[in-house]
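Record pair follows.
FIRST:
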Amino acid sequence: MKHFIQMQLILSTWLSLASLCFGNPASFEKDFSGGKLVKDGMYYALGTFLGYYNYNEVDEFGSPFMRMDTAIFGLSGQVGIAAQNGLKAEGAIKIGYALGLYSGSILDVDNQERNGQRLYSITGTTAGDMELKAGYNLLKLFGMHSASLYLQSGVGYYITRTEFIVMDRVQGYLYVPIELEGEAQLNQDIALSYGGGYRFFALGNHFSAASKYGVEDDYFVLQRQGFGAFGFIGINYLNTNRALRSVRLVYEYWSIGAADPMLTTSSYTGAQGYIYEPKNSTHRVLLQYSFGF
């Protein structure tokens, strides 16, 4: 909840700055509540999502090491300004909770026979991400008004907190999204929405509460190798009350390189051993439903 409140404050500041750059929001045409299928002027949306969240780790030989298969559900929000000159500024937040099955191994530096044995348990993960982006509508160059294709970029941060497994952990990815995103109005009631892009991995941070599980040190490390990608397709439509609704199918992917190992000592016997964050990947497939305001 603390991270979510911080995201909201950053998003509010971003919108205030964008208003100064793009003009007075009151001067724009009506927002989504006016039934606009293609972004124009101020726009807002609140939504919910559910889907599949998968996290995998592999060892130095590429063999499966650990995985989590979970169902995720949560809330999303979006606010932005699409100006008449083709510029756009936007902020978006997602926060969700995933619950499912953990398949991994036991960490026990005191018992080499037990260390590395397979372990299966219930796992839960809180995941949130925030993006602040600006872009330009390339179709504005051709005088098109019923469709858009924004080339956009900005900054994003993705954070997860994992619970109910052998070691509590927090991971965060700071990244730069480089995207194409747009909408195309098909008729008076429906528009196609589409988008995709690359996520340049700037820096990652990883923390594992190893000291709670029999060793002397917690594990904190910075990660510098990786990349991400995403894509979506969906529709915007007007319901019988002429209010805007949106449905999207979203796919998100992360690939993060192995981090440096840490030598630690058993709290019980003094035996030493290494712990590290292996190479890992994340897959999220989400069905998202939003209400326009």
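SECOND:
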Amino acid sequence: MFNLFLGQLLILILAIICTGRVFFTKDIRIDSAAFLSPLIFLLALLEIFVLELTPILCLIFVLSCLILITNGHSLVRLSNRLFVDHYNLPFVVFTIIEFVFAVLLLIALLIFVPVNYSLKDNNVKSQKILLSGTLAKGFQESSLVEEKLKFDGILREYTPLEDSKMDKNTVVLFVGTAKAPVLMYEPYLILLSKLGYRVVGADFYSKDAGIFNSYADSPSMRRIFALGNMFLEPKEFEKYEKIQMDLLPREYSALADFVLKKYGKESNIFFVTDGIDYDSILNVLDKFSENGKGFFSLNRIDEYKTSGFGFVEQNDLILAKYFKIQRDSSLFIPRYAAGKTAAEIKAITRL
């Protein structure tokens, strides 16, 4: 999530430079700063598709569109190597409005800056694997170049930097949801891996894993649509939540199948859940009775106040404000949750 912040920060700095030029340009010159406008638009577009759409990023994208439109005339003049001798009044007015908009967004971005937690500082390494397949037929790693543009799932693996400190027989499994993908749990997953485990988290986007059955199921759109429904259409949100809960057992089963194929049929698997009912996860455990050693539900931790939404006090400060939770750079709750999970794993594997 901090990478998302850095990208947004870069876009807003470029936007302020581009729009702020009306305050400083007095003499006749080529308006080269206008070239920043298509760059700002492309960076905002790239940020949406590579990462995910957030409320602030949505506003940044709107700003980038306005800046591109406002600078259209200047771009045409530049492409024809024409000089700009002055800015007309409509251009100045719109550009000042955009400048103020950009400054306000920058202030908001800095107020809600996520916590910067480091893999290296925790002696953990991460690998991102794109998946193709379905819940019904199973998943495999995407191997073709064209599949990188259209994938059906994202798997994130966290392991200790030193293999000697890892329990090589145990794999911890976690599945994200529409309103809380794996990255919302990343501080916890990193800290759990630091304690000596291979931790695998997955988000599935195949057709049979759809929540909304529309473009809203895409990786960049799914979370903002889920949270938007929660605030604006509570009844619709309840319907989608039920669909999600019905899908989770199938998603955990699909992830377990993939993990056993990738890391070996003799691996012990341990499930971490957040919100799924006990009967459903017990049914998954029964299905994998030879390998499944147990599960740990995060909502058993009283100190974890945002069950189902991830660790918002590190990754989503806007949502944290809604839950009246303060930003926490110490990672206290995810560290405490990781310790409780590790203790549960050790207790079960010793039996």
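COMMENT: The chain has a mean pLDDT of 89.
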